[in-house]
Amino acid sequence: MKYGYYPGCSLERNAYAYHQSAMAVAEPLGIDFIEVEDWNCCGATEYITIDLLPAYALVSRNLAIAAKQEQNGNGNQLVAPCSACFLNLKKADHYMSESPELSEQVNQALAAGDLNYEPGSVTVRHLLDIIVTDIGFNNIESKVTKPLTNLRIAPYYGCLMVRPANIESFDNQEYPNSLDKLMKSLGAQVVDYPLKAHCCGGHMTQISENVALGLIQRLLKNAVDYDADAIATVCPMCQLNLDAYQDAVNKRYGTNYRLPILYFTQLMGIAFGMPPTELGFGKEIVDAKPVLDKIERGRLENE
Amino acid sequence: MNEQFEPVIVGFLCNWCSYRAADLAGTARIHYAPNMRDIRVMCSGRVDPQFVLKALREGADGVMIAGCHPGECHYVSGNIKALRRYILLKKMLKQLGVEEERVQIVWASASEGIILAEAVNKMTEQIRKLGPLDWNKTVLGGGNGYGKLAPIEAEVEAEEV
Amino acid sequence: MVTASPTVRAQTFLEEVVAATPGSDPHLQDCIQCGTCGGSCPSGADMDHTPRALFAMIGAGMKDQVLRSNTPWYCVSCYFCMVRCPQEVHITDIMYTLKRMAIKNGLYKESTTPSAAGFSETFIDYVENYGRSFEFGLATRYHLRYHPVKAVEMATGMGFDMYRKGRMDITPTRIKNLNQLKAILDKAKEIGGTE
Amino acid sequence: MSEEKVGVYICHCGTNIAKTVDVEEVATWAGEQPNVEIAREYKFMCSSLGQDLIEEDIKEKGLTRVVVSSCSPHMHEKTFRTACERGGLNPFFFEMANIREHDSWITDDKEAATKKAKALTNAAIERVVHHQPLEPIPVEINPNTLVVGGGISGITAALELADAGYHVYLVEREPSIGGHMAQLDKTFPTLDCSACILTPKMVDVGQHPNITLLTYSEVEKVDGYLGNYTVAVRKKARYVDEEHCTGCGICIEKCPFKVIDNIFEAGLGERKVIYRPFPQAVPKYPVIDTENCVYFQRGKCKACQLFCPTEPNSIDFEQKDEIIQIQVGNIILATGYDLFDTRRIPQYGYGRLANVFTSLEFERMVNAAGPTDGKILLRDMETAPETVAIVHCVGSRDKNYNEYCSKVCCMYSLKFAHLVHERLPGAEVYNFYIDMRTPGKGYEEFYHRLLEEGTHFIRGRVAEVTDAARNPGEEGKLIVQAEDTLIGKQRRIPVDMVILSAGIEARSDSKEISQLFKMGCDFDGFFIERHPKLDPIATMTDGIYIAGTCQGPKDIPESVSQGAAAAARVSSLISRGTVMMEPIRASINQEECSGCRICNNMCPYNAIVFHEDRHVSEVITALCQGCGTCVAACPSGIISGAHFTNDQVLSEIEGILWDVRKQPELVPGD
């Protein structure tokens, strides 16, 4: 199956592990990603803060290019692994189709770059969506060679993938469970903890560490209360906040959380029997070694 | 009054929902375009395609058929039959070169005066843009309206069986 | 709207906010003051006004107080309020609108989070000049400007970790067709858009 | 041109019409139209003087047709028809033009309004000359009535009619009548025990000579029209012979199997597999739940039959559903409501967090006859809560679920708070509300009473209920998070028990029911009344009435009054014996009918029969409701719809286009 692919800035560097593991698991699942030619930043949560129209023009440049690119009949679907990128792309398309005025103005701007975007001509989807919906759990189970037995995983959805309300979502917006199911199909034990779709703090880590660390601490505490071995994420921003700020949280709250934060694609890769090095392991700040060991132990017990 | 073209729309309103909706719109003093002149029928299902054609032939610029919402018809399903005829009628008018905005079907329950009013406003605007419908020119002047007219009317009835 | 002759009068603050928010209708005027947003907000505790209160103030035309509020700047954009709002008010979108207005009116500086806008500004500065965001530069430049102490921490502590793990670039990547992007953005700014 | 002499009367309706329509001009203009003998304008045509005007002109000027341009025919058609009758004219020689609701009230543009008034008046003039004399059709009213639904509304309606001496068939889906009220403990605001006031009425129904009670039964088919409905009722097999069963209950006692009772006990308690929903059930006969009966599933057991003391044995495993045909003149629908399914709001945690309860579960819990004997306990069924949160507006006032206010939740939530105070002295109670809605006799006073009882009222809709503790005080508790909008701050209240005050929803199958009875139901699924203010009891279908929560959220007193009102409406019809129906009916010209049968399946009332012998179709006037669908469908145009004939409508079209009318060139089909 062929899809357009919009990596987004994070996946180039800080979330390279996400990109690497996504590519690795795509192969056996028969997913073929075609990267959007010379894509640009989606503006994250920042550009829209300064100026509306340029923010939409910024996002739409990517949509316009993706629309031109040939996706071999797959309904021109564009996959974004980063939840923020996913939402920005999807939202721009949604509001442009909802308000012709906006669409017209954006296209005036695009015209300056000899581009044009017809709202609705690209279907924006999150990486998790295509994996659970298009590929399907049976398909995934059939690829599992090293089930994640004994591993207690806390699936973490964050916000931007399943919300907002006025745009239809592929999963429940309050209490999603697609990632739960995915992790189960990898043989892991899934931790059903209440905060699985609550906020990681987003860019608050930069604006007000007070607020951000509070939010991060809530999540870590909740996952640990339900004794999770690791958290599985679907978004670079979530991963960064939970992983890189864990130390700061421990300092601030006198805790000593050591909870590895992994991309769901990394865990898929492990379950598919791929070597950790090819899945970007080692780039996480909180060491994931214990997790890998536990999987190994679980496998040996089973044999 | 100013120079802008004021279309004449003939409305066929069903006695139970849309006519009462129009009553309500009035009672609520909702102001809307006075261009729709309404004829009361017991049910939108009573609207015979020849009524619509006659209205258009004899000077109306548009025709609105209004009934109860599907599933709420006072006569169970008259509105659905009206809808079926309407769809076929549109096909025919299209071939005759009559713009499709000129014949519209609207659902308005007795409590939806506002919906009827808005529909009339919208339709009036649309037809104002289209300009007058000169049947004799558009349809007959355009020639061989006849050829098409006959078979399709047969189709309209055939569908009823 | 169904009315023969609409009476002409000055735009209210509420109408201003609605007009500056993307999409067909953000339903701001439908707020029933139930507080679901304020109750759902993860950072609500730190806001000087809850979103609900802010909407009441918008309705009352208290433009200055609203644009001085830190509420929009504390919005983490989690969309919980928007999913739960019983009146389908596009709360998160409206928060962004208020931020834009605050910046335009230069009032955000008087909120308790003057640096927030600065972060966004630094961010888009990179986006406009490279076409991609640049975390390292962003973090250091922003912090040097607003919390120097933090900048040092960044460089030594977490920032260093990130660098060591190969998760942070020292040099930004630039897109090939930057001129095209610039042209588009300039045009967009020129049109000005819905605001 | 015809010989008719038309009298035209333009009404000022005070200034209602005259201020936007130039009535004088319309009158003068009308006077010049063909066939018009006389055209007048008058302040109030509906006044006795206005009516006299018509009467005199008919007599003196020999008018043969009358047109009045004034308000909506739904307002005064009858008035003017009778005026014509008094003048010695057939009432159907009258036509009305609506130049108020449809003209003077919808615009300020005098010129346009006057033009439209002329068009509408002219349409009436051209139409009326084609009118034919018609006689209203007398319809006999069958004195029997069908009441669907045995809740408090249905019970009230049934008893009112039965006491008036008329026979009633009361059909109830469940094995016993009583409805939701039977599940409640206390009723607000008087706090009298629900069962104590309901049971006597249930018993009356069970024993009333004029009531045929059909429980565990459902209406399957409805044919006919006002005065003469034929209804098919499916009486589901109980597997208990009502002839001989004494309701001693030994079979229930001896039945070895228990299941969770999801209906009456709201899943909180158990019942036997052969059961009676509750001790005071009417009728007293039990029912076998075949899905869970070991005999029906595996062919073993028969304990109930073994121990049944009656002679002959009342347990009948062979019993089959039976279809009962009943003839009635009127039908009252009192089908009640469904409770909002709180699982639909995941953030409130019902089904995930053990100690989150629905309002119905709590009602059963506080009910002395309920699963906990009236004790308020947590899900472990041992511990009593020390703090209780009551969440208002669950599934109500929310566009994601139901936009409307369910009306009763505020009051029953207050009742819950009171019951907690009463049963668990010292327990803390928090009511989270958006707006406190207590309109009703003694309701606001009840609210004040709760304030005095020390209930904590927090004005803010609950955002979420969670067990994710943030600080020590929250460990092991349910935390209710909301904005206290009166303080403007977010609050987290740790509690032991959360009660979700679920809203009222239309029955999940209300759309099918409404179609079964050929009447409307609105977007939310509630049945549509004839008029929201002046006729909330009747429906758009003659002879079908609605009572209670099937029409919209209501509390008990309201449901009772609607039940009684519906009964009153029906009995007035019955006492009249016959009613006159508009003679708007279709008829087929037997000579010219080609027998194509297109009209046959057009008719929603199966009023058209096909005579194989003569190869023609015929309309049974008694069944025809006059919609005219068949008239429109007839390819040879030989079905005529009285008072809406083709030439009447066609000439109306000509008339309405008076100012723009073009002479059409010849086109096939003219």
Describe this structure as you would to a colleague.
The complex is a heterotetramer of chains A (303), B (161), C (195) and D (670). With 303 residues, chain A is an alpha/beta fold. Helices cover 49% and strands 10% of the residues of chain A. Chain A contains 15 helices and eight strands. A four-stranded parallel β-sheet of chain A has the order 2-1-3-4. In chain A, helix 7 crosses helix 8 and helix 11 crosses helix 13. By secondary structure, chain B is α/β, with parallel strands linked by helices. Chain B has six helices and four strands. In chain B, strands 2-1-3-4 form a four-stranded parallel β-sheet, with helices on both faces. In chain B, strand 3, helix 3 and strand 4 form a beta-alpha-beta unit. In chain B, helix 1 packs across helix 4 and helix 3 packs antiparallel against helix 6. By secondary structure, chain C is mainly alpha-helical. Chain C has two domains: 98 residues, Fumarate Reductase Iron-sulfur Protein, Chain B, domain 2, CATH 1.10.1060; 76 residues, no CATH class. In chain C, 56% of the residues lie in helices and 0% in strands. The N terminus of chain C is likely disordered. Chain D is an alpha/beta fold and 670 residues long. In chain D, helix 5 runs antiparallel to helix 17, helix 6 crosses helix 7 and helix 6 runs parallel beside helix 15. The radius of gyration of chain D is 32 Å and the shape is globular. Chain D starts with 5 loop residues before the first strand and ends in a 14-residue tail after the last helix. The chains are: A alpha/beta (303), B alpha/beta (161), C mainly alpha (195), D alpha/beta (670). At the A-C interface, helix 1, helix 3, helix 4, helix 5 and helix 6 of A face helix 6, helix 7, helix 8, helix 9 and helix 11 of C.
